[in-house]
Design a protein that fits this description.
It is a single chain. The protein is mainly beta. Helices cover 13% and strands 43% of the residues. The chain has 6 helices and 29 strands. The protein has a 6-stranded antiparallel β-barrel with strand order 6-9-10-13-12-11. A 6-stranded antiparallel beta barrel has the order 14-15-16-21-18-17. Strands 23, 24, 25, 26, 27 and 28 form a 6-stranded antiparallel beta sheet that branches. Strand 25 and strand 26 (327-328) form a beta hairpin. It is elongated.
Length: 372
């Protein structure tokens, strides 16, 4: 049995067995003073970070990135970025990953750069080198060398996100002039599938304001941990009866930080990203089709890359995959996503149907960049 007492905006929940001590406490935010939180300390008290505390924690880990390219100036090719008259071709944001200077950002922020400059929170400007880029995920890693100690961001778990949670973004909308701009909103949706660079990506949708210049900056949660890399903004969600685009605000998108960090790690270690796969394309066999043709439900193998991992393991076109690692094969997207989360060299156990018989095989996941 618990007794709830409300005093001065603080809710004390007390156990009837311990009347003198609160079981836990929930504080209400009043004019940004004491704020609410979802983390419990060892004594059972729910503590919190205020909006100001969150901003103070994250801002030192966010940088403004300037992309300098060859520019035409009165007929002369000008590349000297130390000349104050030279303006960057584009500007964006970045997240300090480590104290030794690795920074994650978007690929399009540094794409085509002859040189890259990073401005820290305190105004310090540093030259950066591009460690690696990945066009498909629109991610890049750059590195700076600094005599001062850099403040690395703390990273959360994007797999634990739920729609409706509060989220914040920090970046440089409009460039360095508006560096460290903080906006807030909600997680509008998770696993929102959008096509980016000809690849379907599962993104976080938020209504926190994300504008040009925010690209590459963090989306972060109420505990001050980075949960996404802001990478896209949709301004035309639909069209009217005349086929004209309807302007839409509050549609921002971020790459989940779990995937972003997997990609960043590969860029740092290898300079490129491996694409896990088994070299087969599949199409779902639904219940109606299965009954019509007297075949099992699953994933019909449509094509098989010769000498690819699937082919070497014995899969052929017209086989029907019914299970992978004990999971029922029901839809293409789930299967592809499962394989994408594997590492090259991992194995996957496949159960499949062929000509009325069931078989099993073990497939070693390969790198799609080198398969066929």
């Amino acid at each position: 049995v618990f007794v709830v007492m409300i005093q001065n905006g603080v809710i004390n929940v007390q156990s009837s067995e311990a009347s003198s001590n609160a079981a836990f406490t929930i504080s209400r935010v009043v004019n940004g003073d004491t704020s609410s939180d979802t983390s419990a300390s060892s004594d059972g008290t729910v503590s919190a970070m205020s909006d100001q505390d969150i901003a103070a924690k994250l801002t030192p880990s966010v940088v403004c990135i300037q992309n300098y390219q060859v520019t035409q100036n009165y007929g002369f090719m000008q590349t000297d970025t130390s000349d104050s008259s030279v303006s960057p071709a584009s500007e964006g944001s970045g997240i300090i990953m480590s104290e030794d200077g690795y920074i994650i950002t978007n690929n399009h922020v540094v794409e085509g750069a002859q040189s890259v400059s990073v401005q820290l929170n305190d105004g310090t400007s540093l030259d950066a080198t591009i460690v690696g880029t990945d066009e498909q995920t629109d991610l890049a890693v750059i590195k700076v060398n600094s005599s001062a100690e850099l403040t690395a961001a703390e990273f959360g778990d994007s797999d634990e996100l739920q729609p409706g949670e509060y989220a914040y973004a920090i970046g440089s909308p409009g460039g360095v002039q508006f560096a460290n701009t903080i906006t807030g909103g909600r997680i509008s949706a998770i696993n929102r599938d959008l096509t980016v660079n000809d690849r379907v990506m599962s993104l976080i949708q938020t209504d926190a304001a994300i504008n040009p210049g925010n690209s590459g900056g963090p989306l972060f949660s109420m505990d001050g941990n980075v949960i996404g890399v802001n990478s896209a903004k949709t301004v035309t969600a639909s069209v009217d009866e005349y086929g004209q685009p309807i302007s839409a605000e509050g549609l921002g998108f971020s790459l989940p930080i779990n995937e972003a960090m997997r990609t960043a790690k590969q860029l740092i270690e290898n300079g490129s990203v491996q694409r896990p796969g088994i070299g087969v394309s599949v199409v779902a066999v639904d219940e109606a089709r299965a009954e019509k043709y007297n075949i099992p439900q699953g994933l019909l193998v449509y094509t098989v890359t010769k000498d690819g991992p699937g082919h070497k393991a014995g899969l052929y076109a017209d086989d029907i995959i019914t299970e992978y690692d004990g999971t029922a094969a029901t839809d293409n997207d789930s299967f592809v996503d499962y394989l994408r989360r594997k590492a090259v060299g991992d194995t996957v156990k496949i159960r499949y149907w062929r000509d009325g018989e069931y078989y099993e095989c073990i497939i070693t996941v390969g790198d799609l960049n080198s398969i066929g």
